[in-house]
TrEMBL record, chains A, B:
<dbReference type="InterPro" id="IPR010158">
    <property type="entry name" value="Amidase_Cbmase"/>
</dbReference>
<protein>
    <submittedName>
        <fullName>Allantoate amidohydrolase</fullName>
    </submittedName>
</protein>
<dbReference type="Pfam" id="PF07687">
    <property type="entry name" value="M20_dimer"/>
</dbReference>
<dbReference type="InterPro" id="IPR011650">
    <property type="entry name" value="Peptidase_M20_dimer"/>
</dbReference>
<keyword id="KW-0378">Hydrolase</keyword>
<dbReference type="GO" id="GO:0016813">
    <property type="term" value="F:hydrolase activity, acting on carbon-nitrogen (but not peptide) bonds, in linear amidines"/>
</dbReference>
<dbReference type="InterPro" id="IPR036264">
    <property type="entry name" value="Bact_exopeptidase_dim_dom"/>
</dbReference>
<feature type="domain" description="Peptidase M20 dimerisation">
    <location>
        <begin position="62"/>
        <end position="159"/>
    </location>
</feature>
<dbReference type="InterPro" id="IPR002933">
    <property type="entry name" value="Peptidase_M20"/>
</dbReference>
<comment type="similarity">
    <text>Belongs to the peptidase M20 family.</text>
</comment>
<dbReference type="Pfam" id="PF01546">
    <property type="entry name" value="Peptidase_M20"/>
</dbReference>
Length: 258, 258
């Protein structure tokens, strides 16, 4: 990835880090803050779609990521009869449909995403012999993630064809982070007092708060992001909504400090 | 692609072509052969699985290749609610299932292969915004290919979601080639006289015969390929089956010449 001036992302990153002129790392942190408050755009559409000004974050979802590997037998697309194929892509497609159905039947707000897929040899006139795809799933209840993990194994590991095998590997996991209930309640009272329309919600994305919650009482405030877009050039929030967030942040910090 | 000595495929190809010391191209071909006979391995499993020695080729299948393009909206896998997604991969998966079902319901020996698939941005934590996949289909009846092409358009172009569109593009086509009926009948009599077990079948792969059939009477003889493998290092045919093929070829050429 290069910017318009042809500078590699990693070079720009190293340059920026070098410019920070970091002091020596402090191995001891005797003066931990007594609380941490993060103000952020929602990165999703719930506030903007609901005509709300503020989101008060109850928890940051737990995430698990998996790769499913399907091994069949690559062969000639013209000369291999349909009933004599071990087509890894067709099996992968059936697995994705079954996993999607299982996810939707959990009746929770589990998110389920197949974002990455690789087909081999990936040529129009060859039956695919190997397919891998990823699963990203998130929820604010570990029990739901456990339940879905059980279903993933059940679906992927049930044999379907003598010459096709499939397996699943979990390669990333982060637990649910519950933010501070007392700070949440205080923020709710402040929001109501300020007259902003608000909702309490879990964050589907990871945040700094996730790290800070391990060492101190942590709370988090969302403002709407237009069309729910984030990490893209179109990311935007109205000036009015930015000011609502700042107003609540100031009130909350004042309350925490005095 | 390099061989074990590190020579690029394309360099080896150019070297081989240069070594041919080709004479000047003849722009006129006054002395066309009166017939053309091709001996080839089957490249499929029908002869080997059926315990047969000879395949007599009736036709070379017509092929059509398409690319299906599905455009959704790429978005964050964690913060985008399930009911607010325009997931191009999930739509592509549904299309592949529908196309596969349509192909199998044609009750012909149409081959249907999705060999190549590209997902964008192809990252585990991003909902795919763009997916393309290919369709390779083949049959020895143009009417069946026409019928399936009609179904492809119907399936792909039926709207399913306000924010997802899909389209199909045919980028390759070759018509069914019917080989010579009289030569086929003569070969059948010779095979029966020689006592070889045989079957008449269409070829699912393209062959030189396809080109020659345009200028002269053409026929084609298959011998079994072990496990139906072709275009791979494991491609093999037993010595006995090679000799059956040569025996029939010699008898056929003798009959054609005298």
């Amino acid at each position: 990835m290069k910017d318009p001036a042809g500078i590699q992302f990693d070079d720009a990153r190293k340059h920026a880090v070098a410019e920070l002129k970091l002091p020596g790392v402090r191995h001891e942190l005797p003066d931990l803050p007594t609380s941490f408050t993060e103000l952020h755009i929602e990165q999703g559409p719930r506030l903007i779609d609901g005509g709300l000004q503020i989101g008060l974050v109850t928890a940051i979802v737990g995430q698990r990521r998996y790769t499913v590997t399907v091994r069949g037998i690559a062969n000639h697309a013209g000369t291999t009869p349909m009933n004599d194929r071990a087509d890894a892509l067709q099996r992968a497609v059936d697995l994705i449909v079954a996993l999607r159905n299982a996810a939707s039947q959990l009746k929770s707000d589990l998110t389920f995403t197949v974002g990455e897929m690789h087909v081999s040899p990936n040529t129009s006139n060859v039956i695919p012999g190997l397919v891998t795809f990823t699963i990203d799933c998130r929820n604010n209840d570990e029990a739901v993630l456990d339940q879905f993990e059980h279903l993933i194994h059940q679906i992927v590991e049930t044999p379907s064809h003598a010459k096709i095998s499939s397996s699943v590997n979990r390669w990333a996991e982060s637990n649910v982070t519950h933010l501070d209930d007392q700070l949440l309640e205080n923020n709710q009272q402040l929001v109501d007092h300020l007259g902003f329309k608000s909702v309490q919600l879990a964050s589907g994305a990871g945040h700094d708060s996730q790290i800070m919650a391990k060492v101190t009482r942590t709370t988090m405030i969302f403002v709407p992001s237009i069309n729910g877009i984030s990490h893209a050039p179109e990311e935007n929030t109205s000036e009015a909504d930015l000011l609502h967030g700042v107003e609540l942040l100031a009130a909350s910090l004042h309350q925490q400090a005095y």
